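Proteins fold reproducibly. Next comes a concrete instance:

***
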Amino acid sequence: MKIQDILFLMVVLALFYKRNPKWFVLVGLLCLALAVPLFSMWIFFTAERLTWYAAAFFLLAIIFYLFKSKNER
C-alpha cells in the first residue's frame, strides 16, 4: 500500500464522518485537477490513481445523494 492509498482512505473516512455529498464532489474535482499536471509530466501511475480516486468520490457522492433523497420522501 502506497502513501497515496493511505491518504485516500483517511480522506474517505473523514468525509464519511461529515456525510455531506458536496464534499465528496469537491474532493473528486480536486483529484482530477491534480491529475492533469501529472499526466502532462508523464507521471502516469499517480495520475491514474487520482482519476480512480475521483471516480470513487463521485460514486460515493451519488450514493449519498440517493440516500438523502430517499430519506426526504
